[in-house]
Amino acid sequence: MSDLSDRVGTGKGPQPSAENENSPSGGFAGFAWVEFLSDAAMVVVVLSAVAWAQSPIPGVNESHWLGKARAAWDAEYCPGDFFYVSTSAHYVFLTLIGALTTVAPLPEVAAIGRLVACLVLGVALARLFQRVVTGNWDFGLWIFLWLQWFGNLSGEWLIGGVEAKQFGYAALMMAIVYLGAARWNLAAALLGVSIAFHRVIGVWGAVAVLGALGLRRPVGVPWGQAVGIAAVCALPGLIPVVSMLADAPSAAVAQSAALEQVYGRLRHHLDPTDFALASYAYYGVLLAVWLVLIRLRPATETGWWFRRVVAFSGAFAAVGLVVGMGAAWMDGRLAGAGEIGPWSVRAAALLKFYPFRLFDLWLPLGVACEFWGLAQGQWWRRNVATLLLVGGALWATYFSPLMPAGSDSKLTPQLWADFREAAGWIRNETPNDSLVVTPTFSRDFKWYAERAEFVCHKDCPQDAAGVVEWRRRMNYWKTWRQTAFATAGAGDPITPGELAGLARDTRATHLLIHAAVTVEAEPLFRNGTFAVYELPPPNAAVPSAD
Asked: 362: closest CA among 161, 153, 203?
């Protein structure tokens, strides 16, 4: 049995010429198109079904990104919204899908986008599985979907609402496929496309591939040409980076933004001290299983490259874990002090780049490939695998019931219906340039109301200055609520003076709050849960307390 380091790509593996590109498991030229299209179609159907079942439209990020895409193409859509006018982090995706918003409403754009994403992912997954798992690979897809649905480490997911990362991952998968066929220029182009659609995923993937190339040192790689092709293909996605660098904030602002992202708004993705213990246990088991499987099964050429990418993604996550946990320990946060000290400040400079993201997806995908590849040709292994998967799926289904279609996890069906009714009234009865102060749980307000928000917890910009301004607005709104609602709860209604102060500080025109909060003004709209109030002009005189 070969050495483990050899198995994951740190030694001498099979050379690129070892796999015949014209074999049934090789390139497109010799592959039976009918068989490939039927397999890819099956994958697309499965992915689409999972996407709609797990994430009814609008998905958790669809109102976030699709609304921003529409605003980029339509100046009359939510004009002045703080998040929509911020720097576009995913320029290529927003440009392409934004064009679709000019001819179709957002729900249809989401549906079309999901189908396209599932098509692209379906082809990429079909090619990757087919090149890594010889023989009947189809059931490996079910293993992957089940493993990822069962849990994750840092909140990464692949199948659901449409967004830029699905296209970035698909391009990265296809790059691995063509690395296995020694198609260096095509692999480089796909790495560039991955960066263009999602620079975090693409750059981490490119670093993993470069690391594997350095260990493998294959001959015949046209380095200059490949690097040039990758750079050209990545350039459209790097435009926002250039824009952000041109408007670079002060060091203090950049540091404040990093701290907010890592230990505030995105801590569930970036701070390893925030990950659940069960997630660590789950991924520890997956890692142990993967390490065993790669010793039991010889790899195809593409499989060797894929194992290297999985291994490097694990190395990135390990560095992030050591840095994040080490900083928390040095600052005393692991002991419950809860303070962001100097070590945590330093750690944020790395953690803000999502070091866990690639590993979160590639590990279950790697386990699925290796497990089903090992089961090929062994009837007892296939039967045991089937029983385990069916039993696990039934268990997960029982303990993880799907939410009702279109619901928000923080609202009951009645509250959700009342929220949409209030948003619909605002869309139909208020001026197009209105600016609304909304409840803290608001996530899909702009999707239904088509009006700008003062601030939304979900809609945090990605440029440093925008992150700092978002936190300022969130803090202001929290302080105003605590002060105004406290007096209202004690029997004193929110006064016209307080409403005038809110309008002056936010420049908002309307306020959407719970109907139970007493306000010394007549609502424009009220249902069982919510009420809409018009705020006085910002320059209006504050009413006398007499």
From this structure: 153
* Per-residue pLDDT at 25 exceeds 50: no
Vertex 6, ends 359 and 130: CA angle to 5°? 60
Q: Which residues contact 445 (CB under 8 A, 6 or more apart)?
A: 423, 436, 438, 451, 453, 456, 512
On whether the CB atoms of residues 84 and 71 are closer than 8 A, the answer is yes
Task: Judge contact between 84 and 67, C-beta under 8 A.
Answer: yes
Range from 5-9, 103-107, 241-245, 417-421 carrying the lowest mean pLDDT: 5-9
Task: Specify the DSSP element, H or E, that contains 254.
Answer: helix 251-260
Distance between CA 100 and CA 388 in Å, rounded?
43
Cα angle: 444, vertex 63, 504; to 5 degrees: 55
Q: Which amino acid is at 508?
A: A
Phi and psi at 321, nearest 5°, equal: -65, -45
Other beta carbons within 10 Å of 17: 12
Q: Report yes or no: 236 and 196 within 8 Å, Cβ to Cβ.
A: yes
Look at the pTM and tell me if it is higher than 0.85. yes
> Rounded to the nearest 5 degrees, what angle is found at the Cα of 101, between the Cα atoms of 404 and 431?
85
Pinpoint the alpha helices (H) of 181-222. 184-197, 199-216
The predicted pLDDT at position 153 comes to 94
| Higher per-residue pLDDT: 453 or 540 | 453
